[in-house]
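Fig. S4 source data, part A: sequence.
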Amino acid sequence: MTSAQKNTDWLGTIIRALIFTVLLWFIIFVIVFPNIDTMTFVFFQDGQFTMTAFERFWAAPAARAALRNSFILAPILTITVGFVGVSLVLITEYFKIKGAKILRMGYMTSLFYSGVVLVSGYRFVYAEGGFLPTFLYNTFGMDISNWQFEGFWPVLFVMTFAATGNHLLFLRNAMRSIDYQTVEAAQNMGAKPLFILWKVVLPVLTPSLLAVSIFTFLGGAGAVAAPLMIGGADFQTITPTVLTLSRMQGSRDIAALLAIFLGMATIILVSFLSWLESRGHYLSVSKTKTTLVKQKINNPVFNVLAHAYAYLLFAIYMAPVVLITLFSFTNASAIARRQFTLADLTLENYIHVFSGNQISGQSTSSFQPILTSIVLSVVAAAIVAVFVTFVCRVITKSKGKGWFGKLFSNVLEYGLMIPWLLPSVLIALGLGMTFRDPQWFMGNQVLLGTIGILLLGYMIIRIPFTLRMTRAAFFAVDDTLEEAAKNLGSGPLRTFMKIILPVLIPSIMAIFALNVNFLLTEFELSVFLFTPTSVPLGVAIRNLLQEASGGVDNTSLTLVYAVFTMIASALMIYVAYGRKQMRED
């Protein structure tokens, strides 16, 4: 070996050691340490182990009620979302329903807006003084004096129609993977349509259904926007209660304990999902697979009922979207009356927002939340995209570097997946508790109270999803491309930049778009870490709705925010999935 080769090997070793050190620092001090800090805060006082937090939790009725409510909502929501989600896929993919393309577009609106924006839309339609009760009173003279849209049932109703997006994304693909010859074989054997649906079709959907059901359960257990905004005093779940308790000096240990309970439930269910995936699922299909043909409902009564049910769901999904958009172009008087006429049309609401006028009663401009969310979501998504692409490259190259390389890649991969096991509220509490004081591993900087901690939180919660999707994209790259480049004398960096990265770019851009879409209206983490000078869009909408409860009417501003997020989210989904998939039958 020449001295030049030795120097190159030593340089490579030093670079790999530096990379390992930096990535290990990020995992230990940014991802792991804040959660350990939370555990220490709950279970240790003055250096002594204590169970005082459990005693205080048991003595706090609100905390006990929040835990109970979360685990009442979660299983019931899993059932209702599962029923509606499966029926949406059957309506659009399995049965012959007239207008299926239009119906699918309506059902997919739950992908375009979510969280606080979605809940504000349903409040505008269904809450006391909303469009529906006002319409019923003005049109039919119905007594609406006792009309209420608050508590468990409204929360369940809103979250049921908010959480079907995963079913449309994943069950639809599973449905299209069915070999139609299995359906034909069952028909030739005299099986009835309901039997075929139950014994042939639904078993194919079961693996995907189990996965999305677990995520629905976790979404119900960690629900924040719907309980916070329409749960009322009688139905608050874990996360809103943690938000309240964390702001009370003497109750932060109870808040942290509630977050830990939610984290334990998340870890258990995600572990169960991983176990299901490891078992594998197999379906016997023919060698020449045929595309599924939509089934006609021959019974005229069932056919009418199926169409009625399909269009009722369409109306429920579309009503908030249409009314929000429509009333965002009307004046304050029309919005207050919840009545629309052509004479009320105006662009004043949009001019008010995009001209940067101040929000009523606040010193910030009405455009500031939009700008804050755009900048934070784009910057966080871009940093995560670059960081994870680099990490995936390191993992891929380290796998074949002996036992140390394999250990390094496993530590890196599993360490960065830790946030996937933790609810946003636990991550937010950990970041808040750790970085409210100077930390030597952060250069003695106090991050709490700065926009930096919100950016850091956004990055942490999107790393697991980005890592999983980007790793899948790396697996799809043909190894022979890199080997050919190496044989032609191309170095590792040049090979990656000129050969591998162009192949990955479409997948990276799609993941980037989905991350921006998610972060644009992120609320669960933002509501804990935002600062008064950098209020994200989701928090701004929540604040406006709270002001409305206090007599300040900023409904027009809320509507404009909602329309903006829907348009932005639709554009991001279009970028992520492309024109071809968006137009698929």
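Fig. S4 source data, part B ends here. The chain has 25 helices and two strands.
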